[in-house]
Design a protein that fits this description.
The chain is α+β, with helices and mostly antiparallel strands. The chain has helices at about 15-25, 25-35, 45-55, 95-110, 125-135; strands at about 1-5, 5-10, 55-65, 70-80, 85, 115-120, 120-125, 140-145, 150-160. The strands form two sheets. It has a five-stranded antiparallel beta sheet with strand order 1-2-3-4-5, with helices on both faces. Strands 6, 7, 8 and 9 form a four-stranded antiparallel beta sheet that branches.
Length: about 160
């Protein structure tokens, strides 16, 4: 799936683990996705995470086109029980790439014939992510507690009228 200089390509294991090591060592990524006390992920942890996600969802590497070719900057998952998007490269954040990634995932779900999308638990401290999903038409469902006990929201977007 592609939108100009941004594309989502299927995850390739074990090839994509090296880039993901940088993303899942970044304190900002870990804080927003897993909580403050999360240690950097090892290659084994990343591989296990991707394998678990791929068992029930489509997992993509987010890439941007540069003069040297396509460069991986993060990952995204499209699943019935969540759709996490991680922009792992700090210099690529707050540039609209997450919003464009979300639009590609929504379109993919429509192609697959899904009636709705539901997010995983989005931490209340992750204001950028909450705003991105709301701008894309997602509505807040319920306040829950994430695995670390922190307040989080699940959100939903209807793709078809029932």
């Amino acid at each position: 799936m592609q939108d100009g200089d941004l594309r989502l390509r299927p995850l390739r294991l074990p090839d994509d683990i090296e880039a993901a090591l940088r993303w899942y060592a970044d304190p900002e990524v870990l804080r927003l996705s897993e909580g403050d006390a999360t240690e950097p992920y090892s290659a084994t942890t990343i591989e296990q995470m991707y394998e678990a996600l791929a068992a029930e969802a489509e997992v993509f590497v987010i890439e941007v086109q540069t003069r040297a070719g396509w460069r991986p900057i993060g990952d995204a998952t499209l699943g019935k029980r969540g759709m996490p998007i991680v922009i792992g490269e700090a210099e690529c954040r707050s540039r609209g790439l997450g919003t464009r990634t979300l639009a590609l995932l929504v379109e993919r779900a429509r192609v697959l014939g899904w009636d709705e999308l539901v997010t995983n638990e989005i931490s209340l401290s992750n204001e950028r992510s909450l705003r991105m999903f709301e701008r894309a038409g997602f509505v807040r469902l319920e306040l829950v507690r994430d695995e670390g006990g922190e307040p989080a929201l699940s959100m939903r977007k209807r793709l078809r009228d029932r």
